[in-house]
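Usage

Read records sequentially. Each one opens with the input sequence:
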Amino acid sequence: MYTSELKKGVNLHIFSTDKFQSITMCILLRLPLKRETSTANALLASAFMQGCAEYKTRRHIERRLEDIQSVLSFNILKKGEEHIIQLFVRTLPEYFDKAAELAGDILLRPLFNNEEACRRELEATISSLVNDKRRYAFEKCIENMCENEAYGISGDGYIHDINSASLHMHYNYVMQNAKTDIMIVGNINEHKAEECIRHSIPLEGTDASFEPCNYLYYPPSIKEITEEMDITQGKLCVGLRLNTDPSGDDWYKAVVANELFGGGASSALFNKVREEDSLCYYITSKLLRFKSIMVIEAGIDSKNRDKVLDIIMSAMQNVSDEGIENAKKSITDSCKIAEDKPESIMDSFLGSLIAGRAMTLGETAEKISNVGDIDGVFDDCHIDTVFMLSGGGEAQ
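and closes with the structure output:
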């Protein structure tokens, strides 16, 4: 991996490989996650594609992309307590210079045509969350769990803030305050790529710096929230504070422990709650590294809530090293598979940057391989929030 500081606060990371026929690039405008700017960030991400100095409308941009056989899009990411506007580009090696020129024009000379359409699109996106009941329950669990922390802020924004956001003013704020990382994956010469980026995307530097997420938290009591909805399958989310340093070696023990506990079809939770007791339709656990949080998700009949909670706690207290080698192999195999996707390479590296320990997927796999036991992972673990999206009847 090649890394270069283009300007203060603007870093370039190149993963040179002949594994892929195309070149993938993402430009990440990283900002602190704040309630007062989350909606404007999300709106801005959808507005960039409406036009730029050289290509006045979305249709003109799309025609140019067809000409240079490239794909370009904007997304909004919530990573830890950062809110990130992502410009994503995929192109062929022979068109990289032209794709970079287009990306620079869109990013640095936007026109923000058709603002009202962008506002309607964002409102529809926010409103649609309730249609995905599993994701809705997960987001509500995090919102309640971290209600006094930046991590509890919605990355999609808030409907009642949409019309008050000024795109032009907020664009200036973002470009003056965002810390920027540019990542490129593909068969490309690092120095030629750097020269191209310096010429085509001349971003101004910034003194932006972020405090790392506070991962230590001891809940004074368990929050228990139940929300009723006309659904046939209840959704249970249990949020726990692990209090494990996400930048330390113990984090990799936590990753292995999660795999043994609820990370796969051979995990303790799956075998007990689903296979033995038939109390759920699905059950899994996942780690949110930046806040050192574990979230357990289960699809259950609402009447079985307390039984499932009891089994979860019992399983956590009794999880053992049995099967650790298989768990480690499953994780390292996933790392190897992820290396076959440019998006996964960049996403993993970004996550490690935010966690405070920049690492490639290969380095992560090595850390996992070196885990010898999971002793102590759950010693300082505390249930924070139990969120139940409750409905009646049997699942379809």
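Summary fields computed downstream for this record:
- Residues 111 and 284 are 45 Å apart (CA to CA).
- The domain at 2-200 is CATH 3.30.830.10 (Cytochrome Bc1 Complex; Chain A, domain 1).
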